[in-house]
Amino acid sequence: MEKLPWGGTVPIEPQDCPFILEKSSLNVILSEDGFTKTLFAANMVDYALREGSVVYIDLDTIFTAFLNIMIHDSENLDNLLIFQPDEQTVEKTMAQVCSLSSPYLRFIVLDSMTTLYHLFDGKAPSDVNRRMSIYLSLLQSMSERFDIPILVTSMIRARRMRQTGPRPWLTSPTGGRALLRAKIVLKLSKTSSHIDIDVIKHNGAFIGKTFKLPLRVEWGAR
User: Fold this and answer.
1) Mean pLDDT over all residues of the chain?
2) Which CATH class, in words, describes the domain spanning 21-187?
3) How far, CA to CA in Å, does 176 sit from each of 1, 47, 114, 152, 156?
């Protein structure tokens, strides 16, 4: 990515996306649309696979369902390890992922916190929040150990406020408190031709900027 121009809106290309993320850190993306956040995550995966291996914890299965659309460079798919845990296997999966020691590991995706919360729907909120904090702490430790970015996705939900008025609804990400440890927070929204990436939280000069990424079906095409 070249030096950023003045102004709040910056057009970028898919190959620029990895430069928005931070290594040795949790990077959170928020979205109201499941397919949009998965497209963004897949773009990161596509480029990370060129350098090494990628682990994708696909809880909502959107990435797996559209894998052939999102990742076209099939020669690198042998370096992609996908997990699809359910309520019975999620603990084992997280332990397995966090025990990996490959020097070729370049990227880990947890997609999504929203689905992860739904897996523990019948449990006490305090227990669920404790689990989420443990999972994110383990992933944060991995990102520091391997000096790689960890991408965590979360859907934005709306809930009705008690008071009435012009704005009776409040939007917030699933796992809001647990995600406070993230150094990078990006909010995605989709138009007819672009994905707008609003930088909510960042360590560098990107804070407050909006990146406009062309929306293409053939994301993996070269």
Assistant:
1) 84
2) alpha beta
3) 30, 28, 10, 12, 10
